[in-house]
Design goal:
This protein is of the alpha+beta class and about 500 residues long. The chain has 4 domains: about 60 residues, no CATH class; about 180 residues, Mutm (Fpg) Protein, Chain: A, domain 2 (Sandwich); about 160 residues, no CATH class; about 70 residues, no CATH class. About 20% of the residues lie in helices and about 35% in strands. The protein is built from 7 helices and 26 strands. A 6-stranded mixed beta sheet has the order 7-5-13-12-11-14. A 6-stranded antiparallel beta barrel has the order 16-17-26-24-23-20. A 4-stranded antiparallel beta sheet has the order 3-2-1-4, with no helix packed on it. Strand 18 and strand 19 form a beta hairpin. Helix 5 packs across helix 6. It is globular, with a radius of gyration of 32 Å. The N terminus is likely disordered.
């Protein structure tokens, strides 16, 4: 539509639509992509630069054909799903819904191992449903790819907590969640961390949780981006931190790790030495003068690890048998930054650990021992997560028959290197201060109401104090549940009914 003017400008309103691949059917850029039809207004200079635009006549409608080239190159986003922690609490994967199978009701969609690739061409979406029938609880995790942006979301079922509630069969629950997430896919993609600037650092991870009704637990997803179009999603069920006033917001967490694969996300707390385990670059801390063993846990501060216990010593209380071959450590070949001209003696069996301050550490016949990454070890760490919340863990040790600093005259005592980490599964979000104060007020006012008929004594002063507490409690709960508005509404209805009767 063009508005002609007697001056030197014409104002054009161009109809445009966002395509599936994220391109616009108009060559003119806009600040924001909006799904659906909208108008883009622009002023086209026709002659004189000095005149200002001022439409004065009626508009003319004219068809204008714009050149549009759709990107035929499909991009795929590969999600890696790790849900072993969620299975610990009795949740089982019931079904997977996706764009290619949902219309035909074929379940489940087959992953390639623990990976699923979503397409950018069809705004792909996959929904995974987890159910715990004993607890009458379930939740769904959505993995989507919309306009070139991968996204993740989690929704909990709020029905079926009591026998009187309607327990919707899980296929229907999955379909409902699928439609909800698909209708909100644009919003979910825009709210993903890194979607604005298109960059997420390798150490950046993000957590989103949704409270499981009728419990102290929450369904949690942890998302991190290591390479372009590759996303690893960890699904967990953990104790809710009590901050459910904003359950669907992303919270940032810092995780830095380099080394062999681990049983869950780990954050390395010390980067003193560098070695290679089976070709994997890894970071280590020096344990000089300490007897450190694989599986030790404790506190770490100011560069010092204070041992408290060992996870394999605590398995007795969990009815876990460490004689199971699944708990045997993984043995790795150790190699380092060898500089033969700086090493003394025979070079056979020597490896040099590079110290970040520049010094080398010579190790004779070294070998690495690491925690396995199987389900049994994951379950063990999850089982200890409540009791060992906030603790640090030794996940790798390097043992050797000789150990000395390059340039020193004499070999020193045998001192292994170790990797000390902070397991993400042992981390707890700090409780929400505002919500904690809210709960405190609820308890205080509840007790004030509960004791209103049990107050001893008949003194006038005591009665006055109790009456003040009771009035305060009634006022508090009236505001919380909106009883004032309900009471006012009821009074208005009654007054209107009386007036109509007259």
């Amino acid at each position: 539509m063009t508005l002609r003017t007697p001056r030197s400008f014409a104002r054009s309103l161009l109809a445009m639509r966002a395509s599936k691949c994220g391109c616009l059917s108009s060559p003119f850029p806009t600040d924001r992509l909006i799904s659906g039809l909208y108008w883009h207004a622009m002023w086209i200079r026709t002659a004189d630069d000095s005149e200002s635009p001022n439409p004065e006549t009626y508009p003319e409608f004219k068809t204008l054909y714009l050149t549009h080239h759709q990107d035929a190159n499909e991009t795929r986003c590969e999600f890696i799903l790790d849900d072993k922690y969620a299975l610990y609490h009795g949740f089982t994967l019931r079904s997977i819904y996706s764009d290619d199978i949902y219309p035909r009701n074929i379940y489940p969609r087959q992953f390639t191992g623990d990976a699923v690739a979503l397409s950018s061409v069809i705004d792909d979406l996959t929904v995974i449903v987890y159910t715990n029938y004993d607890a009458r609880s379930r939740f769904a995790v959505g993995l989507g790819y919309f306009l070139g942006q991968g996204w993740v979301h989690v929704i909990c079922d709020e029905l079926g907590r009591t026998p009187e509630d309607l327990w919707i069969p899980w296929p229907h629950f999955g379909k409902i969640v699928y439609e909800l997430m698909r209708n909100a896919r644009a919003e979910q993609a825009q709210t993903m961390p890194g979607s604005v600037h298109g960059f997420v650092p390798n150490t950046g991870h993000f957590i989103k949780h949704a409270h499981l009704p009728g419990s102290i637990l929450a369904a949690k997803v942890v998302w991190g981006s290591w390479e372009n179009d590759n996303f690893k999603i960890i699904v967990d069920v953990d104790q809710c931190p009590g901050c459910c006033d904003g359950p669907h917001r992303w919270a940032a967490t810092f995780i830095r790790y380099r080394g062999l694969p681990t049983p869950g996300l780990m954050h390395t707390v010390s980067l003193l030495h560098e070695l290679k385990l089976d070709g994997w670059e890894a970071d280590f801390d020096e344990c000089s003068g300490q007897r450190i063993a694989l599986g030790d846990y404790g506190d770490y501060s100011n560069g010092t690890f204070i041992r408290v216990g060992n996870i394999f010593e605590d398995v007795g209380i969990l009815d876990i048998h460490t004689t199971d071959p699944a708990y045997r450590p993984v043995v790795s070949r150790v190699s380092g930054y060898l500089r033969p001209w700086k090493l003394t003696g025979h070079l056979k069996g020597l490896a040099a650990a590079h110290l970040r301050k520049g010094k080398l550490l010579a190790l004779h016949q070294p070998k690495g021992l690491s925690l396995p990454t199987n389900w049994q070890v994951v379950r063990l760490l999850k089982a200890l997560s409540t009791r060992l919340a906030g603790k640090h863990l030794v996940i790798t040790v390097v043992q050797c028959s000789g150990f000395y600093g390059v340039g020193d005259d004499e070999p020193q005592i045998l001192t292994p290197l170790c990797t000390i980490v902070r397991p993400q599964v042992w981390q707890r979000q700090l409780p929400c201060v505002e919500r904690r104060e809210r709960f405190k007020s609820i308890r205080e006012y509840f007790y004030a109401l509960a004791n209103m008929h049990q107050s001893p004594g008949t003194e006038a002063l005591h009665k006055s104090a109790c009456k003040k507490k009771e009035d305060g409690a009634i006022e508090f709960f009236s505001d919380m549940f909106g009883l004032k508005h309900l009471r006012n509404r009821r009074d208005n209805i009654l007054q209107k009914a009386l007036f109509d009767d007259k």
